[in-house]
Write a structure and sequence with these properties.
Blueprint (H helix, E strand, L loop, with lengths): L9 E10 L19 E3 L3 E9 L3 H4 L2 E6 L2 E10 L3 E7 L2 H12 L11 E15 L3 E8 L4 E12 L9 H21 L12 H13 L1
Antiparallel strand pairs: 1-6, 1-9, 2-7, 3-4, 3-7, 4-5, 5-6, 7-8, 8-9
Function: Hydrolase highly specific for thiamine triphosphate (ThTP).
Keywords: Acetylation, Cytoplasm, Hydrolase, Magnesium, Metal-binding
Subunit structure: Monomer.
């Protein structure tokens, strides 16, 4: 996913709901009833992720720092659970470093913020934009795990462009975004498999434990 420079007093919000797999072999606009109003197939991506942490301090605090295709990114949990996730996304080095320092007390991008790599894998990502705004993603890792998500993103600008949006406003906006995703997935239930989804990191660590035994 491409990250872009945001207005100074703003934040990028992301709300996503995960699904186990697609219910149909190939996602098309007219693959079920009702049809998607529109469906744009995006280019397939190959994503190389390395996740970093220090004694699980970041993940325990609801933060995930990774280097994706050579670029640093951070996702800060803002509520929800694994299946229904709400994040603020950081893509600027100074913002990521500041958050890492707040959590673990160290920093410095040249030294990986003082963190250690905990997981590295590649993902083949198929993506679609449905109904003009909903991003449907299906990920297949190089260790043969698959998981998907429907997500919405929104840049939230502070009042009068002076102050960053406060936490309450962020939470209200993310609640509305989540409600839209729920309605979307219910409307097009023919596209999404039922069952409990498993995240890529969870599957990765489970595989490591199996290999160690």
């Amino acid at each position: 996913m491409a990250f872009r420079r945001l207005p100074t007093a703003s934040c990028l919000l992301e709300v996503e709901r995960k699904f186990r797999a697609l219910k149909i072999r190939k996602l098309t606009q007219h693959g079920g009833i009702p049809h998607f109003r529109s469906l744009q197939k995006l280019s397939v991506e190959i994503i190389r992720d390395s996740y970093y942490d220090k004694s699980n301090m970041l993940s325990s605090a609801g933060a995930w720092v990774r280097k994706r295709n050579g670029e640093w990114q951070a996702k800060i949990k803002k509520g929800g659970n694994f299946t229904n996730s709400r994040f603020q996304e950081l893509s600027h080095i100074d913002e990521i470093e500041a958050h890492v320092k707040r959590v673990v007390g160290i920093g410095g991008a040249t030294s990986n913020f003082g963190l250690q790599p905990v997981a590295t894998f590649s993902t083949t990502r198929e993506s679609w934009i449905a109904d003009g705004e909903f991003r449907i993603v299906l990920d297949t890792t190089d260790f043969d795990h698959q998981v998907g998500e429907v997500e919405l993103q929104k840049v939230l600008v502070g009042n009068n462009g002076d102050d960053a949006p406060d936490e309450l406003r962020q939470q209200r906006e993310m609640q509305l975004m989540d409600e839209k995703i729920v309605t979307f997935m219910q409307t097009y239930a023919w596209a999404f498999s039922v069952g409990e989804p498993k995240g890529k990191l969870t599957a990765y660590f489970e595989l490591l434990r199996t290999q160690d035994n």
